[in-house]
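Blinded run. Sample ID left blank on purpose so nobody reads anything into the name before looking at the predicted structure. Input follows.
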Amino acid sequence: MEFKIRQANRQDLIELAQVHKQVFTRQQLSFEWLECNLNAFPRCLFYVVEINDEIIGFIIWSQKSGFRPEAILDLEQIAILTDYQGQGLGAKLIEESLVLVKQQLAKQDSILKHITVSTRADNQAQRLYKKVLGAEIEATIKNLYSADEVFMIARNV
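Blinded prediction complete.
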């Protein structure tokens, strides 16, 4: 399967909102959420994955606590349309967008230090974050969003 990963742009917002609505069913105002993240560049670094010029997923990385020489990134959100899940595209999106993120950080005279990610305690994506990033669970917060939430950190990436 041939796919392409590129930086998101304003023209993508309607398609991105459709992906967001399908994947994050408990969240509201998908278009507005994604638009404000897109507008937050370079604090938020937003990439899409396409197959045959159709957006089938996205990832948002957020720089935490200011622009620093050693950046701390948060994997804010990652989404792959249901029909494309389980095919390794999430891992590829993380790996390949991270290359683009590091290029952007270099333009800011910065390097990547750590990555944080949080997810529901029952989310299978924890295995993906551990496998691809080396992230480990550091804390569990009871009943944070819709259930217990785990906070993971990938150190010295």
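Unblinding after everyone has recorded impressions. The chain has a mean pLDDT of 97.
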